[in-house]
Give the backbone structure.
Amino acid sequence: MAQAPPPAKKPAEKKPAEKKPTKGADSIYKKYEIKDGKLERKRPFCNRCGRGYFMADHGDRYTCGNCGFTMFKSKTD
Ligand SMILES: [Zn+2]
């Protein structure tokens, strides 16, 4: 006589995955900071490409990801 199969386990309830903001939309806000009610840019713009082209902070220098322009930080800060 066949035995009845064990009762099926109820599958663990799946939580709906939290929607994360897209990387692109998220990163732009990291480049700005509100200080004393004023908007401050954390990165300089590229001298070659102009406004809107942020330069990446590489410690002692900034580099433009668009054209590759490198600007060394002045030590007189
Ligand atoms: Zn550039």
